[in-house]
From TrEMBL:
It holds the Pfam family Aldo_ket_red. GO terms for molecular function: oxidoreductase activity. The lineage of its organism: Bacteria, Pseudomonadati, Planctomycetota, Planctomycetia, Pirellulales. The keyword Nucleotide-binding does not apply. It comes from Novipirellula aureliae. GO terms for cellular component: cytosol. Residues 7-298 form the NADP-dependent oxidoreductase domain. SUPFAM superfamilies: NAD(P)-linked oxidoreductase. Keywords: Oxidoreductase. Signal peptide: none annotated. This is General stress protein 69. Its EC number is 1.1.1.-. The keyword Protease does not apply. Gene3D superfamilies: NADP-dependent oxidoreductase domain.
Amino acid sequence: MDTPTHPIVLGLWPIAGVTTIGVTQADAAATIRAAIDSGITRFDTAFSYGYDGESDKALRPFLQQDRDRYFVIGKVGQRWTEDKKRVIDGSHRQLVADAETSLRRLGIERFDTLMLHSIDPKVEIEISACAIEEMRQRGLAANIGVCNVDESQYQSFKSVAHCDAIQTPLNWLQRHALDELIPACAADDCKVYVYWTLMKGLLSGGISRDHRFAEGDSRPGYSVFQGEARARTHDILDALGPIADREGLTVGQLSIGWAISQPGVTAALVGARRADQILETSQAVRLGGEVVEEMNEMIESAGS
């Protein structure tokens, strides 16, 4: 079972090079090494992280050096077509095939946790869940779970499969998972990994109001990076600055700290495309209740 105490899991999507242009194999290796040197031992990858499994392949050399030291979370249910379009495929046959391929890329015999990446609207969730459960029973995964679900879908998944963990977005702009999903998981002793704690870098404090994204960067397509929503977020970030200074943290560390301090949250999945990014985020810590409440009051008063 997942026993590491560090509250950060390194998410390997940014080093796959699909939406983060210019990431090299050397960048990927340096980022993973920096995470390990910072005490991070859990890694989150997926069959679809890279057109040809780049994130799996980047992690492989480290697993070959010391497999027992690291906790590997894998995901299946998304894949790329030949013309590089990402599709959701929750069919039994494809889930098994992609899990086996991912294991070969990683050079390991089983995942510590294997998760259904997305719900396929063309396939009943119970069918996909059964495929994941069967792989656990075959020994391809020690633990299993599901990502990107609401509370009702979570219940459907665990009606036919054991559910050790979920993944869901959570940050101080997106708090809906705290209403039903995370409390339900907490009641079941199901681990909760949260992602987008920095909302693709927006909540790190490192993106200025007038920042212009490079061509091919996917972030401008998200509503929180546009118009009044972005301006309001920057206003909140400015207000959070003094709190971060008082606590000896960066604004990004404060944002991650808010997420991992919520009841029921196990750890935050935080991506990085460069070593210096993970060196900062790895220092995020759980916050005291008074700090969380102070942040909540400030955020709610701003209407976010």
